């Protein structure tokens, strides 16, 4: 599903590569934690999957597509198959829960009848039934993140990328978030989650890929966060 | 394509950027009005030229008995000289026709065209010069005729009537050029304003566009609301320009035209054409300016 082959990424004006000859394979419906200290290359890894950045060398395949050969014109279609969740939720403050989720479908031109059908379903899936008409500022951090996950998943992507989704959320609420991610993963969606949260990684017992200074230093199935942290 | 969705985005954008949008509308209106006035003056000048140049002639004034012109040496043109001149004119390829105007006809014309009563009282038909009125095939090519007649025996002076109109048309041409230059300056100002408006709009909506990008909205979907904002501002501005052009026709050109011959007046169809052109140009400028700015400020 996601295939990195010897990928190196150096940002302009920086000597040290953000990713240094990284090769990794992530299969369909896998759940992968991406761990490592700040600046170790986790976010770069996720941005490369979305083709927000281009690698300096190496090949990346996502959902069977070679990103280097994917024209700019087709990048939006790639992104429709990838959902994204961020630490800062990125909801539209002037739209309610329903509208925020529906927005993701409206802007890719889905018919209204389809939107009316699937948005309530996905709101229920993330556990926000009955809150469809709340505004984001009326919700707790955990609930806002659930809205963001509903928006990321509403188009049934093949891959869900989560960049520190529990970073702004207290540990008790984080468990709920992880349950939703797990539920999404069980529908067959590949989930890649970058995180600092050792407790969560340890409790989930999923595959762990650890990055340090742009290199993969550990790739373990059913791993834990690691002793050093 | 969800038209409603795009339109609501456009409406939100216009409302958020109201002051800038108004500035764009005003500059586009003024710029396009100047351009339209330039078109109207051009049309007016052309129709006046068509009208007048059709009528202009080269006048070959002949010596009369008491002519003060040194070329005449105090003698009138003889019948033989007149015959030679007429034959020579008629043989020239540039000449379409030659009419002889005798003293009586010249006096009649003078009476009709001269406003001064005292001048009329002291002149008689005898004072009028005789002349050949030479009609040219192409009013633009008059030099050979002028050269051939200048200094011939019996010729007092040669006047190309077109030179008399030249000053007047020169003034109109200058007016037209001035309105084009002014239109150019205002159009540049409106392009810069549109660029700035789009930039502000892109900044205001960076959250929305960021999410749109992320969920895989196509470039068209992301950019269309911005381009349509520019288009709508351009359209409203151009409609303003159209109103100004109609007012210009009613209050300026119609006033001015009471002095003109009926055949050379500016017609409404010319105004309609000027409006169509300024509308197309105004909208096109706004769309292109928005689109080019978007490429810089909205990474897709």
From TrEMBL, chain A:
Function: Part of the ABC transporter FtsEX involved in cellular division. Has ATPase activity.
Membership in a protein family: Belongs to the ABC transporter superfamily.
Membrane topology: Peripheral membrane protein
Subunit organization: Homodimer. Forms a membrane-associated complex with FtsX.
Name recorded for this polypeptide: Cell division ATP-binding protein FtsE
GO annotation (BP), single: cell division
Listed GO CC annotations: plasma membrane
Any GO MF annotation of the entry: ATP hydrolysis activity
Keyword set, alphabetical order: ATP-binding, Cell cycle, Cell division, Cell membrane, Membrane, Nucleotide-binding
Highest taxon of the lineage: Bacteria
Bilayer-crossing regions: none
Domain ABC transporter: 2-228
Stored InterPro entries: AAA+_ATPase (IPR003593), ABC_transporter-like_ATP-bd (IPR003439), ABC_transporter-like_CS (IPR017871), ABC_transpr_LolD-like (IPR015854), Cell_div_FtsE (IPR005286), P-loop_NTPase (IPR027417)
Compartment(s) of residence: Cell membrane
Pfam family, one: ABC_tran
UniProtKB/TrEMBL annotation, chain B:
Family the UniProt entry places it in: Belongs to the ABC-4 integral membrane protein family. FtsX subfamily.
Organism taxonomic ancestry: Bacteria, Bacillati, Actinomycetota, Actinomycetes, Streptosporangiales
Function: Part of the ABC transporter FtsEX involved in cellular division.
Protein name: Cell division protein FtsX
TM region(s), chain numbering: 21-41, 178-199, 220-251, 271-294
The keyword Iron is assigned to this record: no
Every ABC3 transporter permease C-terminal domain range: 181-299
PANTHER family reported in the protein's UniProt record: CELL DIVISION PROTEIN FTSX
């Amino acid at each position: 599903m996601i295939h990195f082959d010897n990928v190196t990424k150096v940002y302009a004006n920086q000597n040290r590569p953000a990713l240094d000859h990284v090769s990794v394979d992530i299969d369909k419906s896998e759940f992968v934690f991406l761990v490592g200290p700040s600046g170790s290359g986790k976010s770069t890894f996720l941005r490369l999957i979305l083709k927000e950045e281009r690698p300096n060398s190496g090949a990346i395949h996502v959902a069977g597509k070679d990103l280097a050969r994917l024209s700019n014109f087709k990048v939006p279609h790639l992104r429709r198959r990838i959902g994204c969740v961020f630490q800062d939720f990125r909801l539209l403050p002037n739209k309610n829960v329903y509208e925020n989720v529906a927005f993701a479908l409206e802007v890719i031109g889905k018919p209204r009848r389809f939107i009316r059908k699937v948005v309530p379903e996905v709101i229920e899936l993330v556990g926000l039934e009955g809150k469809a008409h709340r505004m984001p500022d009326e919700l707790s951090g955990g609930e806002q993140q659930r809205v963001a996950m509903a928006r990321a998943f509403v188009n049934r992507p093949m891959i869900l990328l989560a960049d520190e989704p529990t970073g702004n959320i207290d540990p008790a609420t984080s468990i709920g978030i992880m349950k939703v991610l797990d539920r999404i993963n069980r529908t067959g969606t590949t989930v890649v989650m970058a995180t600092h949260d050792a407790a969560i990684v340890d409790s989930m017992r999923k595959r762990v890929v650890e990055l340090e200074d742009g290199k993969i230093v550990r790739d373990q199935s059913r791993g834990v966060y690691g002793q050093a942290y | 394509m969800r038209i409603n969705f795009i339109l609501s985005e456009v409406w939100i954008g216009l409302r958020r950027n109201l002051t800038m949008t108004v500035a764009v509308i005003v500059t586009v209106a003024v710029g396009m009005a100047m351009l339209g006035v330039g078109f109207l003056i051009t049309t007016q000048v052309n129709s006046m030229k068509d009208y007048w140049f059709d009528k202009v002639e080269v006048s070959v004034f002949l010596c009369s008995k008491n002519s003060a012109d040194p070329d005449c040496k105090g003698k009138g043109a003889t019948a033989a000289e007149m015959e030679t001149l007429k034959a020579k004119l008629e043989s020239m390829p540039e000449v379409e026709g030659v009419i002889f105007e005798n003293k009586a006809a010249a006096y009649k014309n003078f009476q009709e065209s001269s406003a001064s009563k005292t001048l009329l009282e002291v002149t008689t038909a005898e004072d009028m010069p005789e002349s050949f009125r030479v009609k040219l095939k192409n009013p633009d090519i008059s030099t050979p005729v002028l050269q051939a007649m200048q200094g011939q025996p019996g010729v007092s002076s040669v006047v190309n009537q077109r030179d008399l109109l030249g000053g007047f048309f020169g003034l109109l041409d200058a007016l037209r050029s001035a309105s084009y230059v002014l239109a150019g300056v205002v159009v540049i100002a409106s392009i810069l304003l549109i660029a700035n408006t789009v930039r502000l709009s892109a900044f205001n909506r960076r959250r929305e566009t960021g999410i749109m990008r992320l969920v895989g909205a196509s470039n068209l979907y992301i950019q269309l609301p911005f381009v349509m904002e520019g288009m709508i501002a351009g359209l409203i501005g151009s409609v303003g320009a159209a109103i100004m052009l109609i007012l210009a026709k009613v209050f300026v050109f119609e006033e001015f035209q009471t002095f003109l011959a009926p055949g050379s007046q500016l017609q409404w169809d010319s105004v309609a054409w000027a409006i169509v052109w300024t509308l197309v140009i105004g909208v096109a400028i706004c769309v292109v300016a928005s689109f080019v700015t978007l490429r810089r400020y909205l990474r897709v």
